[in-house]
């Protein structure tokens, strides 16, 4: 079972406004963005997304990766399936992108309100309330470094869960077994998302029958 962590959600930070829109993608529509949106597909080997027309920079883990162009394309292969439900394409080329779809983000906020904990679903640590202010005293620096390391480890864990969930969904469709790629629009049509599917994804992630069961367990500090 995954342990819940108390996290203060930070979804309206001024720092995000210059590089990310409400969807978590770059706010301008460039050819690179259009390339991502038009022809992304799920690779059925690694379950990352690739651009099947080889337009733009999006590539799966089976392919060579493009180098970042910070300030423009922070994360060249930054689009992916939602790390929680794996039903919807999310992410973006910005460092300020979200790793979960809108429904899962809303469910995460609901968990924070009702239970007092939530998952760190922002790509950048600052989006999750984790940072080391410039004014931090030397004696307090260690605490900040530990928090950043914990954030990085948790981010990898959630990402790994998303890949596992994507594989499980793929294997639930026998007629796809010989496909090397599944277009995102076909994937999203097959696995429609709603509040129920998001709730189920969180239950599976935490390994509980009801999310309220988490309140019966001891919650670690980190």
Protein described:
The chain has 222 residues and is mainly α. The protein has one domain (14-216). The chain is 33% helix and 7% strand. The chain has five helices and five strands, in the order H-E-E-E-E-H-H-E-H-H. It has helices spanning 31-39, 102-115, 141-171, 184-190, 195-206, and strands spanning 40-43, 49-51, 79-81, 89-91, 181-183. The strands form two sheets. The protein has a three-stranded antiparallel sheet with strand order 2-1-5. It has a two-stranded antiparallel sheet with strand order 3-4. The radius of gyration is 18 Å and the shape is globular. The model is unreliable at 3-37 (pLDDT under 50).
Mind sketching the topology for me?
Blueprint: H1 31-39, E1 40-43, E2 49-51, E3 79-81, E4 89-91, H2 102-115, H3 141-171, E5 181-183, H4 184-190, H5 195-206
Antiparallel strand pairs: 1-2, 1-5, 3-4
């Amino acid at each position: 079972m995954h342990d819940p962590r108390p996290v203060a959600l930070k979804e309206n930070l001024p720092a995000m406004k210059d590089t990310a829109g409400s969807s978590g993608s770059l706010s301008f529509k460039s050819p690179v963005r259009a390339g991502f949106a038009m022809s992304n597909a799920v690779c059925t080997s690694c379950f990352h997304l690739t651009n099947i027309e080889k337009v733009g920079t999006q590539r799966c883990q089976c392919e060579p990766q493009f180098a970042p162009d910070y300030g423009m394309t922070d994360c060249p292969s930054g689009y992916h399936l939602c790390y929680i439900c794996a039903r919807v394409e999310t992410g973006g080329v910005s460092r300020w992108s979200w790793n979960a779809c809108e429904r899962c983000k809303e469910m995460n906020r609901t968990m924070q309100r009702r239970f007092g904990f939530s998952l760190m679903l922002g790509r950048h640590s600052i989006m999750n309330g984790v940072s080391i202010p410039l004014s931090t005293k030397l004696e307090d620096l260690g605490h900040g470094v530990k928090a950043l390391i914990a954030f990085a480890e948790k981010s990898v864990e959630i990402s790994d869960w998303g890949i596992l969930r994507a594989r499980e969904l793929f294997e639930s469709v026998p007629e796809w077994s010989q496909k090397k790629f599944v277009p995102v629009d076909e994937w999203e049509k097959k696995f429609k998302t709603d509040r129920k599917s998001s709730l189920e994804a969180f239950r599976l992630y935490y390994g509980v029958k009801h999310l309220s069961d988490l309140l019966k367990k001891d919650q670690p500090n980190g």
